[in-house]
Amino acid sequence: MAGVSESVKVALIEGYPKFAEATKQFFDKTLAPGDYKKISGGQGCYGEHGANSVMLRLRFAGGAIDKTQIKFLIDAMKEHPITFTHISTGQSLQLHHLDADTVIDLFPKAHAAGIYTRGAGGDNPRNMTGAPLRGVGKGAAFDVTPYFTAAQNYLMTLVTTLKLPRKYKIAFSSGCENEGHATCKELGFIAEQDGTFTVYAGGGLGANPRVATKVAAGIDPKDVLYYMYAMGKLYEDFGDYKNKARARSRYIVERLGADEFIRVFNEYVANAKETQQLDIVPEEAGVTKKGTGVPTTKRAVEQKQPGLYYVNYHPFGGDPDAKTFLRLLEYIYPLQDVTLRLNTDESMYIINLNAEEADEVAKIVEADNATTDFDTSISCVGCTVCQIGLRDSSGMLAKIRDAVVAAGDVDEALLPQIRVSGCPNSCGAHEVGLLGLQGFSKKVNDAVVPAFALSMDGSCDLHDTKLGTRVAVITEEELPVFFVELGRMLTTAKTPFAPWYAAHKDEFMALVKKFD
After folding, report:
1. Are 246 and 299 in contact (CB under 8 A)?
2. Exposed, middle or buried by CB within 10 Å (0-12, 13-18, 19+), for 414?
3. Which residues, listed in sequence order, are joined to residue 419 by a DSSP beta bridge?
4. From CA 183, how far away is CA 432, in angstroms rounded?
5. Total Cβ atoms within 10 A of residue 270
6. Residues 156, 96: Cα–Cα separation, whole Å
7. Is-contact 333 364, C-beta < 8 A?
8. Mind listing the pLDDT tens digit for each residue in 369-410?
9. pTM summary value
10. Which of 150, 191, 335, 497 could form a disulfide with 1 if both were Cys (CB 3.0 to 4.6 A apart)?
11. CA–CA separation, 369 and 314 (whole Å)
12. Nearest Cα to Cα of residue 221 among 279, 287, 305
């Protein structure tokens, strides 16, 4: 299947003049933030807290950033005052604290580089997520890349044709991981060893989250687009347009019941096959680069291509240091076949490196790269940036880290990765974390104070996806203290959190009760 057609490209930028004018009015204070959001959201742009800046969300399907797009990022960061970028759990890259001139200039330049911000927000098919190491990582059931690419190109046609009540999220798994959260989306495809896909639908995180329902198995990969079309039409027909709070596809499953949802879904698939011509003709695009040597860095991991490696770069909270990020982009841009893959854990992979390149990349990002599980903790940007955020999730994560370091008697390496969301919208995917935090409020001595709800035992394991259970609500003031005390318990036991927690749940809950 060919790439995004010229007619679709034109359709994706048709709203730019209206968006640019609205952006000027937003900064001139002649257009209210709520009214601006109605125009800008569908273009992937949102006003930030305080209404003095905006965020532009760059959608990269499955997190893949090619050479042209790397050059766009280099130029953007050199020509504009871009100092705050954030890797989202949707494998997009968010450019924050932009002024009017910057966002108006970058929008069409991003489009020209194949970065279609249209649909990156609002009630649209959102950025498609998937295995960041597809095509290069070992262990996959099969290489989903040709089908993922065809699906992404087709998805962009749906951005301008579907009229949905809420966002439509699609994900792919290579069968050895669930990085794209395929079991927690409107639609998910999981590769199987027999060369087919198993399909899940009607899931989603956020308020009243739901694990997706298995709706089909053994489907031919060439039929993927029929399932995408079918789910889009089902969502369009059965979605709730009156109550936005119950408009996501998971409420359709709730209303119909799982069995009826499965029946209706497959009825829509059958109709799609009768009325549409959407067979995928896979286009293979392998890596031709040859590598030699062995890297000295332990951060390099061998790809399935002999002599080639990838390096993972995980900045704290998903916020890469601006100078480090720019230096990385400038170094890899001229290198043969070297590209980036953003991941849903707010990290990025630099792929197709030879040994020498892998060592240099590891060196460039070393000071800004995670060294412990706790360092890989995930957070949305929080209420100091986001207009709708309830709590400062990013700031709280930093306070927890600072308190642990200041304590002096805690082995940070034993603390777990935590997932933090500033509100129920779950931009930190807290529900699928072993330990998750969600922005909340708590009544203390007749006063309502800022807090976070603590959830436990969530997982996005491919074969055991489950939502965490809320066990406590802890005030912002006490949360760093809670983690310091937890860290001391782990340090005394000389055991990382996961195995310690499995064997000492009663002790953990006693600690939780102390702060609840």
Report:
1. no
2. buried
3. 378, 436
4. 11
5. 12
6. 24
7. no
8. 999 999 999 999 999 999 999 999 999 999 999 999 999 999
9. 0.97
10. 150
11. 5
12. 279
